[in-house]
Amino acid sequence: MSVATLNGRDLLSMADLSVAELRDLLDLAIDLKAKKLNPRCEKILGLLFTKASTRTRVSFSAAMYQIGGQVLDLNVNVTQVSRGEPVEDTARVLDRYLDVLAIRTYEQQELETFARYAKIPVINALTDLEHPCQVLADLQTIKEEFGQLDGLTLAYVGDGNNMANSLMLGCALSGMNVRVAAPAGFEPNAGVLEQAKAIAGDRTEVTLTQDAQAAVQGAQIVYTDVWASMGQEDLADSRIPVFMPYQVNEDLMNKADSKAIVLHCLPAHRGEEITNGVIEGNQSRVWDEAENRLHAQKALLVSVLGVE
Ligand code: CP
Ligand code: NVA
Q1: pLDDT tens digits, residue range 27-81?
Q2: 163: CA distance to ligand 2 center in Å?
């Protein structure tokens, strides 16, 4: 298999990938995990993060070091970004030093501006709108569990946030049914929902409900995420009563398929969106999912950098 399919490309949204490109990327991640390939490069990855991160920062760094590359952690507080240097200028300068740039920020628009002004591949390491790198690892985890993605049903229960948006797109591209259960006023992005429905066509279903129990009925994958994302910390307490009917607990899991697994992008708030019993229970795959961030992002780096 060619590992350079995405040579020079950006990954700003899950929708930047075609059905075949996503399938190839997941297969590459699985092969890299099995050490069937040993791609090597001397490239430099920059990590420009405005929000906190454990998994994304460390897995991108480890992946780059494992293929022989280098990483620059560009904490915005020690760059001129924090003093207001325009994105357009920062992007054109970083483009001259780096081979690939992963950005974690708030506005998708800011990421898109970086990508427009930097010629090197720009990767979405999480925005308020999407988290595609997480979904690559999620789909890898599901494929490893069930052997295929096509025809499976994923129920996302909770806040219609960046995870919900990227999962809708990723599932639609993978031939999976996706049901989102979110309280009124916390639905996923309407434009992304329509985009996912368009990708799914009449092959699979993308549905939205306020009924968590109906969403998980017979689902093979139950997915949740925090009720208040980064930047919404002040709203966390007020959201708890609104979201409590969407908690992934033992009762809810009993409605899912008997072979169902539970995923969570982490970090998790035990006792809020997921109970301790479920995240630590035998249906949980969250640690494999977290590990797969390393393999999936290594596949992405190898592919966008054109490493052979
Ligand atoms: N899931 C995820 O992106 O984790 P971090 O915020 O720790 O990177
Ligand atoms: N929805 C969460 C995901 C964290 C990985 C957030 O944006 O904070």
Answers
A1: 999 999 999 999 999 999 999 999 999 999 999 999 999 999 999 999 888 899 9
A2: 7
* Same domain for 166 and 106: no
Please tell me the number of the ligand nearest to residue 292's CA: 1
Side by side, the strands of the sheet bearing 44-49 are 70-73, 44-49, 100-104, 122-124
202 Cα to the center of ligand 1, angstroms = 33
The pLDDT, as a whole number, for residue 4 is 59
64 and 192 in a common domain:
no
Indicate whether this model's pTM tops 0.90: yes
The finding on whether 54 has its CB within 6 A of some atom of ligand 1 is yes
Give the domain range for residue 104. 14-130+294-305
User: Which residues are part of the catalytic machinery?
Assistant: 104, 131, 134, 225, 265, 293
Q: Domain check: are 22 and 126 in the same one?
A: yes
State pLDDT tens for residues 169-179: 999 999 999 99
> What distance in angstroms lies between residue 52's CA and the mean position of ligand 1's atoms?
8
92-99: Cβ within 8 A, 24+ apart: 92/117, 92/118, 94/46, 94/48, 94/118, 94/120, 95/119, 95/120, 97/44, 97/46, 98/44, 98/45, 98/46, 98/72, 99/43, 99/44, 99/45, 99/69, 99/305
Confidence of residue 283 (pLDDT cuts 50, 70, 90): very high
The answer to whether residue 35 is domain-embedded is yes
Nearest CA to ligand 2 atom 2: 229
Domain count, the chain: 2
Instruction: Answer whether 58 contacts ligand 1 (Cβ < 6 A).
Output: no
Q: Tell me if 5 is assigned to some domain.
A: no
Residues with CB under 6 A from ligand 2: 126, 161-163, 225-226, 229-230, 265
User: Same domain, yes or no, for 223 and 107?
Assistant: no
